[in-house]
Structures are given as C-alpha cells and as structure tokens.
Input
Amino acid sequence: MWAKQKCLASERGGRPEGDFVPGQQKLYRACACGKHFRRSQSFSVTGDSDGSSFISKETWNEKDYDRVSLAETSLLNKLIRKSLVESNHQVEVLQRDPSSPLFSVKTFEELHLKTELLQGIYGMGFNRPSKIQETALPLMLADPPQNLIAQSQSGTGKTAAFVLAMLSRINPGDQFPQCLCLSPTFELAVQTGHVVEKMGKFCVNIRVTYAIRGNRIPRGTVIEEQIVIGTPGTLLDWCFKLHFLDVKKIKVFVLDEADVMIDKQNFLDQSVRIQRTLSPDCQMLLFSATFEDPVLQFAQRIVPEPNIIKLRREELTLSNIRQYYFECENKEDKFRALCNIYGSITIGQAIIFCQTRRNAKWLYFALANDGHQVSLLSGELTVEQRAELIQQFRDGKYKVLITTNVCARGIDVKQVTVVVNFTLPTKMTREPDFETYLHRIGRAGRFGKKGLAFNMVERHNLPLMFAIQDHFKILIKRLDPEDMEALEKIED
Ligand SMILES: Nc1ncnc2c1ncn2[C@@H]1O[C@H](COP(=O)(O)OP(=O)(O)OP(=O)(O)O)[C@@H](O)[C@H]1O
Ligand SMILES: [Mg+2]
Output
C-alpha cells in the first residue's frame, strides 16, 4: 500500500539508482537521505497546467499524440511474448474442395515429419500443435500442395506453422532459394528468421538469408540459401533487378502479417508483382492476425484457390472489472485523487494511461518526485527499450507503469490489478475512443482475475465518460476522492 503523506520513497525503497528513465537521468540527484532521487533542475509539477481545457488542447496537438504503427505493435508483442496464446474458440475452415476429407492432428508425430524437424520442434518446447496448427499443418503439408489463407490472433502459432511447412518442403540438396517469405519490416523479417534458425537447428544444409535493406550483396551473386525472408521492395529488387534468384524455382511463397502489410499501399503492389511471376504449382500461404475486409480482399487477390482457416479472437471483456470515476477540476486534482487511491487501497501493480507523451511525462515527474516507484513508457523509446521496460515491470521492479496508448494493446502483466485512465481515451476528433478504452481497461482483468479501473475525468469531459458507459452498457460508479472510507471499501 502507498501511504500518503510521508517520504514514501523510504517505505518503497525509492527510485533505485540506474533505473531506466530515458533521457531523464540528468534531472535527478539523490535526496538528503542518500537513497532517493529528486529533481535537480527547476521543474514545476504544476507549471504547465491548463485546467479544464486540457483535453481539447491536447487532442488538437497532433505531434504530441503517441501513435504506434501496426508493425511496431507486432514487434513489441513478439519481443515480450513468453508463450503461446491459447484460444477457447473453434477453428472455422472453408475448404477449397469441400468434398475432400479435412484432417486435424493432435500430435506432431501424426504429421510424419522428418526426424530432424521433430527434434527442432521439441527443442523449442512445443509439446503439441496449437489450435490453428492442428488444422493448418495437415493442409499446408498435404500433397499436392494446397494454398492457404489463415487468420488467428497474434501469438497463436502462425509463424511456427509456416516455418515448419517451409522447412519440410525444402530439398536440402538443392542449393538455391525454394521458399520466399514476405514480411512487413526488417525487424519482423529478422524475428521470423530466428524461428527458422531455431526450428531448423537440426536440419543439415538448410540456410536462410534476408532480403532487407542494408543487406548488401554484390551484383552477380547467385543466392544459395534455400529460404529468403524479406520486405517486398528489397525482395522485388533481388528477384527482378539484381536477379539473385530464380523465382520460378520457388516452391513455397509466404506472405506473413498481411494486416500489417496493407498499411503500406506500395507493399501490396510489390507483393502482387512478385506473386504474379511465381510458378503455377508454387504453394501460397498468407497469414494475418486480423481479418477486416481489406485484408480478406487482399488475401483473395494474392492467393488463388485458397483454403481459408479462421480462429475467432479472444474477446476482451469488462465484466470482471469494477470501474469507477472521479470528477476532477484539472490535472493537479487528478494527481491528488490518484495519491488518495494509493493511500487507501492495496495495489499490486498498476498501469496509468495518459493520452499524450507530454501528459505522461508530467505525471511521471509528479509521482517520482513524490517518491513513488514509477516507470515511464512512451513512444519516444525504441521498441526494444519498450520491451525491456515491460519486462522490468513484469519482474516487479516497478509497481506503476505510466504510459500512453503505445501500451494499450497486447501487454499481459499478470500482477496488474489496477488500471487508471488519467485521461480518457479520445480520437483526434475528440470523440471517445471506445476500442482503446476496452483495450486499456482490459489489461486489469486478465486471466479471469478481478480488476479495478479508475477514470479521472475533468468535469467538462463527463459526457465522454457517459458515452463510454452507454457504449459498453456498464455502470461506472462515481467516487469522491476525499472520501477515504468509501475508497477503502472498494477492496471488499
Ligand atoms: N505448438 C506450440 N506449442 C508451444 N508453443 C508454441 C507452439 N507454436 C508456437 N509456439 C510459441 O508461441 C509463441 C507465438 O507463436 P507464433 O509467433 O508462431 O505466433 P503468431 O500467431 O505468428 O503470432 P504473431 O501474429 O504475433 O506473428 C512463440 O513464442 C512460439 O514459439
Ligand atoms: Mg507471426
């Protein structure tokens, strides 16, 4: 529990030296007791208060908005993911030939894989196929090869599935590219390459190369690696400008992360240009974490005669999260309410969401200056730094993570019991952003646990909150930040 008035740092251990505070370390020096840190430059916690016009001012300030691309989110998810994301839903299959039998496997042995591949899979700690793999793998490994479009939520085993398919189709005796895999970014291509390397660890003579910017290969080279992973533009150059490989010899063509790919129009055109030149019996596989209409349309354009597999997303629910709001005057008032919550209830770990970087930074300093163990995660950090910070938070190094929407999706920290919306999520248009609310608050009630959510709402923004309430058909109870008794009762 955070007590309210004393030097909290002495109870909490303060902000330990060496904490990762991007670009801000210089602002701190140890306080009198030698253990804690204080600002050493003049910095006013209340200095840039703009009271009730706060939201409107911030929402207009576009450059301050913390936006993350789908590719960044996808990479962050991979860097922080520890294991398979299980699904409770059934796989839906749309077969190209509905009269052919549909196989589904419960074990990897049933797939009759080469021994070295089974070794690779077990070496990665996989015991049995994931839900999507149960159906996708027999389809992908069937002879003659069949095309596939597969959608399932991030972390459910798509990449592992197609890597297995690529590795099992390769003839290691042939020293030329046999599998092409398109990825939306350099970093995501490298991630896929890591999976190939791990799964193919026992496959002698199978190698991978990367068609990504910066991987300069002298003109006239003939590539010998059997797997080429790359981004569409560079891969297009490799195939048709530099003639590093013979596209007609490609047996498996994979387009991964189609939902991320369609974010960039020229990637679609480039992917289609590569696909059009492939041999008619090349197997085409496309994967996506989501299946909005544009993704599906693109998928059907690029994959002829596909089998389609879908696994519905796990829905986030707000039903096991108790939600409250505080009516506040301005951000200083919100800050006081926040301190009162911490003074009244026992909190495991908490995530506090702000709408802008500027606001998150302000709150970070306000809390850190008050002696709290907090960390700040915003889009100013690289994806790798964000992943590192989230890991430290998971390890319990910090109790409070202050963040912007960079962190609204996909981060599961089991210990998080409290989510605070220091600012309600709004779109650029200043309308309530329901989806982001769901994703933010959904962080608190993961794994069937009960969670608590607090919304700090300035009076003029109350309509936003009521709109959220109506949208989700939920009750967000009003709390008086000064009523400590009521606050203490929340825990019961
Ligand atoms: N059958 C399995 N058993 C155990 N773990 C698995 C299995 N298949 C995949 N995994 C692991 O689960 C995690 C997610 O797998 P993978 O990256 O293949 O998912 P994905 O659906 O491609 O996710 P994304 O959409 O984010 O790319 C990885 O850590 C992977 O090693
Ligand atoms: Mg993947």
About this structure: The chain has 17 helices and 17 strands.
